[in-house]
Design a protein that fits this description.
Blueprint lengths: L9 E2 L7 E4 L8 E4 L2 E4 L9 E3 L8 E4 L2 E6 L8 E2 L4 E2 L20
Antiparallel strand pairs: 1-2, 2-5, 3-4, 5-8, 6-7, 7-9
Length: about 110
């Protein structure tokens, strides 16, 4: 009986995408490869979160499975998590907490 195939930690859904999706929790400092791109992650990446594979400039569309999911609000370096702190949805409001604000607390 052969061992099951190894699960890659990142899955790039389309060659047109500059991001990949974590297929498992990935620890900070872990080196991962996908489609010939090797990255060392500076921060932990939870299962299902997006990671930049290539540089994404502020204002650029971010594609997931060749479909734009939003625009970068800041430059995003390879290996960085792509989430609401650096991505704005072009379709739905993006709600984030201001620095020091807690959930349910009014803005100061």
């Amino acid at each position: 009986m052969s061992a099951p195939p190894a699960v890659l930690p990142l899955l790039r859904l389309s060659a047109a995408d500059r991001i990949a999706v974590a297929t498992r929790d990935i620890a900070a400092g872990e080196t991962v490869s996908v489609d010939g791109i090797t990255l060392t992650l500076r921060h932990p990446v939870p299962l299902g979160h997006k990671v930049a594979l290539l540089p994404i400039g502020a204002g650029e569309k971010v594609l997931k499975y060749r479909v734009p999911i939003g625009s970068a609000t800041a430059d995003i370096a390879p290996g960085e998590i792509v989430h609401t702190h650096n991505l704005r949805s072009d379709y739905l409001p993006t709600y984030t907490l201001e620095a020091g604000q807690r959930y349910g607390e009014a803005k100061r």
